[in-house]
Amino acid sequence: MNEPIGRAFDSFDIQKLLALLPHRYPFLLVDRIIEARGDEYGVGVKNVTANEPHFQGHFPGRPVMPGVLLIEAMAQTAGALCVASQQASRAPSVVYMMTIDKAKFRKPVVPGDQVRFHMTRVAKRRNMWWFRGEAKVDGELVCEAEVSAMLVRE
Predict the structure, then answer these.
(1) Please, what's the b/e burial string for 91-110 (b: 16 or more CB within 10 A of its CB; e: otherwise)?
(2) Which domains, from first to last, does the chain contain?
(3) pLDDT digits (tens, 9 = 90+) for 6-34
(4) Tens-place pLDDT, residues 27-50
């Protein structure tokens, strides 16, 4: 993507993510956001480790990160971007996933991998956002999907 000269990216460490998202271990699936440009674009990072609980049964002797968790991590990355973009004007909200479309799994993700979730906003209307996401390990596409979310004030 071509960026305007002088346009800086933000980043969110784990403490900021904990403030933005309601998820907690073992379901917080993003360790950090290394690039964020408002709610337009962001890159979340997940360091996959062998001691995560889903690897006990998926699959014993050959651990593979479940595809549904890759999609959830995409949604969490997008959700953090949405909530962060709203915080200047209003109190934080809860983000609910609405849809998953065009999901494709290209390659297994295993312990030791670092997954980067590249999320690009494709549309926004009122309190709803649509994102296109790509999950990559070492620059190689492992998963892609389109997700939508809704912010709800509680």
Answers:
(1) ebbebebeebeebebeeebe
(2) 10-152 (3.10.129.10)
(3) 456 799 999 999 999 999 999 999 999 99
(4) 999 999 999 999 999 999 999 999
Indicate which residues carry an active-site annotation.
58
